[in-house]
Inverse folding.
């Protein structure tokens, strides 16, 4: 009997240390890639053993890199990263995380989508701000050919009629790329084969010309779903009417569009200080998950929301907020839809949510003020 | 007893090991900081900081002379020398004896704040300078404040009691100085350690973002942070404009590097000296001249080339902010930017004017309905305009938003008797103090400058 208690204690300790956690409890092994903008690194969290491996990003030794967004090509086993400040796209071997090559494209590259069949990347731009961000006045979306296993090449450019082509999505066949202008509130469809570009104004209340900077809705990210729908997360917030000088608080929102006809269907509104940023689709349900980056002056405004369109109408399924969230930024979901990973730009954590309920399961420190950005997750089968 | 004890131990171990943050990266430096707690009046209740932990700036001068010289003319060095500060601080202590001293000190003298050194009783900078207080207190915001900072802070949210609540995360006193240089050279005087937070806009917190009673009173950081294109990637950070990079040694005898200016150029100047003698005047002017763009025309209207005598014509203008925060920002209620327009005929007779002032210290005519003025107004609990941020209950904000535009048109009437040139001159002007706020300081008022941010001229012809 005397030996029973120490045995029980040891079992409890070992169990509580997670040494017996299995893939069954964790379902799948997740490799989570996070752009650590402030550290010029990409962090890779292994959910199986808890390791955080970092890959240094150092393409131009004379300046900061600011790695912003990551995209994974699971078929060809690559991951790619954009560096906003130094202007590169870097390609890495997904199995070894070794750098394969880099391509300087300049002009503040931001988000990417990949056509894994044709081995093409499409790269959007960070938002230009007056003349203050040198080289960031472009209206161009670049196409990068990475079919050569050792060298990427710029293969095409598509110029839209609006500045700040930031949000970007691709359809399932890679034949269409969708772009949103962050500063002019326009949405575009690019037909890759023909180069044809069509656009629509997103802000019907203004109806501005495509090159007219309004900075009202501020669309951040767009996702293409079922080759017929587009979901656009719009940051919105405080807006001052340039004609009168009067200010207004615009609700953060998600717009739903028909991607075939490029027509607006409906919008779902959050609070004015919600600041929806990145958005992804659920791999298993007719749902999207949107990051609410929040406003640092309003504690608890940051969070994550799940919108369902099961009945072809946008509805809130759940919404999770916490005062510990500060400026949430990137988001991705596991292939089984079980876990959602969200980066906290200001709080420095990788937050893990239950994909079904939105409940925060765990927060992982990403180091000293990493300025966490884009998140991509690869779930091993 | 034994059984219960063992179970308690086991449960405790279980709880400890359930720490959510178990994935701490092993190859990243840890940055310690000291702690303090405040009571309800914003006074230190307990602290790990000692005023002796902080090194005075003059100790840095030997090896960092360029940086010291930059700083010594800056508004950071002026924080405890500014007569306007002493007026406001003493007024606040009279109004709120329990909280007034600490509220202002939390940002004007962080070393005294975190170490709990009470500075009540000093009515002028001269009195403080003559005291036997440590140099670090007399110098306000010196080198040792920022370069002992190890972690980022938050916005100051001030409640109705106007108690100080700033959170600083610093680690002074152990011989380590932190900065933005990734590969600092070793030296015998102190250890130098890279900390990535020095490139972040949040490094200017807690002091450059403050709400009072929920009013967004001084929120320069948040104005920047509300622009997704900047906040997402720390782009156009505070440091890029207010601490621009220059090539020079970081320390005497060291290699040339890209180092930050420590002039902290903003829009404020030491008004105890004449503008032309102020070593920061040209830098402030240059910053302001790069802050805004003026153009004739709006998306709806263009400026006519000719006008029929007797008809009226419009002067449409577009004002574009090139600034990553509002203009004016910070103590925007004390500052003003405005359009001055003067329209004259060929013999310099004034046909129209708005925004003109007789002297640099003359008040603007705010009854002029044509005046386009960018500023803000603090409203007290009665809805009256006040100059004291601690009395604010509401803010009326007419600032030009970050990277925002403003379209504005003037309508000019012409005489049917006049044929010839009509000359238009439009200037965007800036003043760091509204003159009425310096009424108690005539010696400072005489040194106030009006900066010309941008000028446009155009001649149109009055003809049939």
């Amino acid at each position: 009997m005397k030996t029973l208690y120490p045995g029980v204690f040891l079992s409890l300790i070992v169990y509580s240390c997670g040494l017996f956690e299995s893939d069954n409890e964790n379902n799948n092994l997740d490799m989570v890639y996070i752009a650590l903008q402030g550290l010029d690194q990409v962090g890779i969290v292994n959910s199986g053993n808890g390791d955080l491996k970092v890959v240094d990003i150092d393409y131009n030794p004379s300046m900061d890199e600011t790695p912003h967004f990551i995209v994974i090509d699971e078929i060809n086993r690559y991951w790619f990263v954009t560096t906003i400040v130094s202007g590169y796209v870097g390609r890495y071997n997904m199995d070894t995380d070794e750098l394969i090559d880099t391509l300087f494209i300049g002009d503040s590259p931001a988000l990417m989508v990949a056509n894994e069949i044709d081995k093409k990347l499409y790269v959007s731009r960070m938002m230009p701000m007056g003349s203050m961000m040198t080289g960031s006045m472009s209206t161009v979306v670049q196409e990068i050919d990475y079919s050569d296993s050792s060298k990427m090449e710029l293969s095409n450019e598509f110029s839209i009629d609006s500045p700040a082509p930031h949000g970007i999505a691709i359809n399932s066949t890679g034949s269409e790329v969708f772009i949103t202008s962050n500063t002019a509130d326009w949405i575009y469809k690019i037909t890759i084969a023909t180069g044809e570009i069509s656009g629509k104004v997103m802000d019907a209340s203004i109806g501005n010309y495509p090159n007219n900077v309004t900075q009202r809705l501020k669309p951040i990210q767009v996702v293409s779903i079922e080759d017929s729908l587009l979901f656009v997360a719009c940051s919105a917030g405080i807006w001052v009417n340039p004609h009168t000088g009067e200010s207004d608080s615009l609700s953060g929102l998600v717009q739903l569009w028909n991607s075939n006809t490029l027509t607006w269907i409906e919008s779902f509104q959050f609070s004015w200080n919600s600041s929806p940023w990145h958005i992804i689709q659920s791999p298993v349900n007719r749902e999207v998950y949107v990051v609410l980056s929040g406003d640092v002056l309003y504690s608890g405004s940051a969070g994550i929301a799940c919108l369902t369109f099961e009945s072809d109408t946008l509805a809130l399924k759940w919404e999770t907020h916490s005062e510990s969230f500060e400026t949430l930024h990137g988001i991705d979901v596991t292939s089984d839809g079980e876990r959602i990973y969200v980066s906290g730009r200001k709080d420095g954590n990788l937050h893990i949510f239950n994909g079904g309920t939105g409940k925060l399961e765990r927060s992982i420190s990403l180091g000293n003020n990493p300025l966490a950005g884009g998140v991509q997750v690869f779930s091993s089968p | 007893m034994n059984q219960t004890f063992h179970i308690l131990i086991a449960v405790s171990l279980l709880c400890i090991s359930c720490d959510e943050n178990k994935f701490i990266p092993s190859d990243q430096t840890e940055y310690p900081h000291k702690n303090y707690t405040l009571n309800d009046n914003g006074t230190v209740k307990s602290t790990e900081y000692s005023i002796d932990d902080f090194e005075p700036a003059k100790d840095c001068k030997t090896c960092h002379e360029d940086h010291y010289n930059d700083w010594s003319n800056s508004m950071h060095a002026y924080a405890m020398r500014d007569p306007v500060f002493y007026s406001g601080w003493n007024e606040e202590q009279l109004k709120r004896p329990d909280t007034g001293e600490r509220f202002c000190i939390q940002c004007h003298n962080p070393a005294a704040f975190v170490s709990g050194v009470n500075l009540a009783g000093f009515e002028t900078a001269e009195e403080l300078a003559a005291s036997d207080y440590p140099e670090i207190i007399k110098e306000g915001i010196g080198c040792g404040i920022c370069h002992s900072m190890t972690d980022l802070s938050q916005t100051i949210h001030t409640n109705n009691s106007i108690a100080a609540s700033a959170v600083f995360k610093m680690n002074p006193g152990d011989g380590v100085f932190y900065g933005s240089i990734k590969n600092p050279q070793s030296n015998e005087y102190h250890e130098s350690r890279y900390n990535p937070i020095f490139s972040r806009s949040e490094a200017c917190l807690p002091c450059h973002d403050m709400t009072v009673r929920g009013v967004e009173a001084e929120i320069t950081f948040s104005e920047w942070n509300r622009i997704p294109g900047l906040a997402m990637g720390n782009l156009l950070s505070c440091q890029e404009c207010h601490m621009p990079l220059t090539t020079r040694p970081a320390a005497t005898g060291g290699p040339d590097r890209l180092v930050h200016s420590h002039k902290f150029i903003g829009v404020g100047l030491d008004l105890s000296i004449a503008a032309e003698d102020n070593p920061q005047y040209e830098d402030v002017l240059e910053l302001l001249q790069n802050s805004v763009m003026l153009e004739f025309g709006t998306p709806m209207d263009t400026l006519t080339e000719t006008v029929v005598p007797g008809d009226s014509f419009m002067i449409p203008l577009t004002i574009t902010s090139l600034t990553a925060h509002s203009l004016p920002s910070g103590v925007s209620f004390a500052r003003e930017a405005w359009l001055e327009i003067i329209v004259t005929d060929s013999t310099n007779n004034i046909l129209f004017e708005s925004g003109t002032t007789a002297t640099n210290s003359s008040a603007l005519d705010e009854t002029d309905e044509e005046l386009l003025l960018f500023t803000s107004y603090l409203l007290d609990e009665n809805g009256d305009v006040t100059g004291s941020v601690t009395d604010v209950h509401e803010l009326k904000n007419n600032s030009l938003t970050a990277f925002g535009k403003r379209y504005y048109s003037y309508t000019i009437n012409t005489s049917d008797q006049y044929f010839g040139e009509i000359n238009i001159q439009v200037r965007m002007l800036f003043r760091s103090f509204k003159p009425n706020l310096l009424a108690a300081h005539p010696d400072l008022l005489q040194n106030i400058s009006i900066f010309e941010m941008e000028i446009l001229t155009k001649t149109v012809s009055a003809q049939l």
In short: The mean pLDDT of chain B is 93. Chain B touches chain A through 63 residues (CB under 8 Å).
